[in-house]
Amino acid sequence: MDKNFIPCAKWIKRGIAKAKPEVVKLTKKELKGLVNKAKDRVLTTAESIRTSTQDEGEPGVSDAGDQFNMEDYDKEDEVQSLIGIGNMMSLDEESDESETESQAEEEEDEDEDDSDKEDDEIKPTDNLIAVGHVYGDISILEVYVYNEEGGDLYVHHDVMLPTIPLALEWLSYVPSQSTPGNLLAMGGMSPEILVWDLDVTNTLEPLLQLGEFSETKKYQHRNHGHTDAVLDLSWNCQLPHILASGSVDRSVLLWDLGKARAVSQFKQFKEKVQTLEWHPSEVNVLVTGTCDRKVQLLDCRIGETLTSIKVDGEVEKVIWHPSSQFSALIGTSKGTLGCADFRTKKLVWAINAHEEEVTGLAADCDSIVTSSTDQTVKVWGLSGGEPTLRFTKHTGLGELHTLQMCPENSN
């Protein structure tokens, strides 16, 4: 049975997206070049990852996607699953031109349809929801429009991805542009981070690529980027040109988006960095969660770990407490929901929230919402002490891998 799951998703606030996104119109020759370039790039990356894994044999690297049951793939299928675009046909110059022209004419006719034009327009009351979708060995970034008032939810546009998406992060910083944009950074099973412009449709190429995986072992650990899957991303809204990333390669990188390169690398971690988030007010402080059961507070000015707190399982999710600048909320692989206080260097409380790992964690001033591979979503009351269960929803959707609150309505 083909795998069909959503590993990551991200809400985009209302009023940010352009009312009429730009549409890229490609000639047959341009389309051929982009498709074949993308295929070459992802095939090279997949082969490099496979070669690196065989050469180095690092423990834990092969299980980067275990929560998605990727261990059931045989070795060749694992590599093929990295390249969602790998099954896209090559457009060679001897293909049937009349068929291509006919398809182009049909698409132009569809573009003229009034209802399609109405759907293409994004209203100020619309949210966007970016969704990483994996179906078999195909990976897609789907951009939904959601209108709460009308109850509308539909796919506005989508992008074929060259790798399985694992993390999405919205950001407004556009290099060489004074006005804010509407961008989405994506980390996945390959070491590179791709940044897409959500105000542009029909594109096959990202606006920006961060990182470069070297096939030469000698250069793999230079500041060109990560050397393995990227598990989480966090944009620094106070320093908008800075993006942080955590990886299977046991490092955290800080990226200068204006220069499109890593400017700081932190390698003090003993295991995979699964989750991280910038402090909402302390510009240089980053909280991280790793597979060796540690929540760590990192001062990025000096590159040192200020505090480390041990928990009962792998740290799947960590976010800052909405009502305490010194505390973080934690979800673990054991299904535990906890709160860490970095002043006392201890857990304030920890409860058994789920039967399986916590895969999603969000909070506002009076509630916490969690999701799990046990197929449930739970809402917890947050009133200063240990949270109390308010609501449980058995979704019947299979394992849940991500959870996000709507920025305008947490209900």
TrEMBL record:
Keyword tRNA processing included in the entry's annotation: no
Region Disordered, residue ranges: 43-69, 89-125
SUPFAM superfamilies: WD40 repeat-like
Gene3D superfamilies per record: YVTN repeat-like/Quinoprotein amine dehydrogenase
Pfam (any one): WD40
Keyword Nucleotide-binding (UniProt): no
A Gene Ontology cellular-component term: nucleus
Protein name in the entry: Uncharacterized protein
